[in-house]
Fold this protein.
Amino acid sequence: MTYFAPVTRSADLETPRFPVRLVAHRTGLTPHVLRAWERRYGVVTPVRSEGGQRLYSQLDVERLALLRRLTERGHAIGRIASLPLDALIRLDEEMPQAPPRSSPTVQPAGETAREFAAAALTAVGRLDAPGLQAVLERAAVTLGVPEFLDGVVATTLEDIGRGWSEQSVSVAQEHLATTVFRRVLGWLLGVYEVAESAPRMVVATSPGQVHELGALLVAVSAAAEGWGVVYLGADLPVADLVTAARQTGARVVGLSLVYLPEGEEILPTLKAVRAGLPRQVSLLLGGAAASSVRREAEAAGLTMVESLAELRTLLRRLSETE
């Protein structure tokens, strides 16, 4: 029995998209072992992103997981490192089956973003925090971060928000979901290696904005694009935000605006941030409530971002002008 469904050599399986720490989580190999196997045995050859991160393909991950499984069952890595993937699969199938293990394994490749999102909602409905976290982590390592963020996290959060407004999602369910999503997104934010030369981005929510999941989505998306992200959380005073951007040499500042507090003006705050930043620093604004102030924000010099896909495109363009 292998870790994987039969191999399909499609362009998608060969596309480098997984950073080293996510590969370590997915295969059970430590980053140290990964580097040692690459240097000494050439087991896989990751590519470098524009930001200097080592990225691995689905086929790389499959190969590494099989190598780990076989070495744990008595094979010397030096003897099997050069075998092609098909030979490793046959060797694994010929081995006597080991008892089930509690360490992480790679899930079959057939699960889609839609299926993961449905499973996440089911876990929320059951108030099953461990189950929700397991679904989200499995989705991240199966789909890759961009598809996970777009197709699982954003979709599930929209469904939870809709359920909240329709009173089909309880306060307890919404709070549990927020806690687990925050934990998983925080974990993802830490899996990316960032080169010293990578452009920097500061991400936060402005004063009075206490919902931070949108900002975390932005932060993880930027990290996946090779940016060095300084994540400052929710409800950050303007002066501290401006100081942090200057201190870190940020090229971009991203703000999430989820709702407009009743009786409060958000535009003076946005204008104050823009006025406090150097002219060459881009100030991005996104979130559920951003469209309601679009015209005034753009007039004040902010750049509106309507989706994570648009954010990724913008960050790639900005990194090319570095």
About this structure: The CA atoms of residues 107 and 138 lie 7 Å apart.
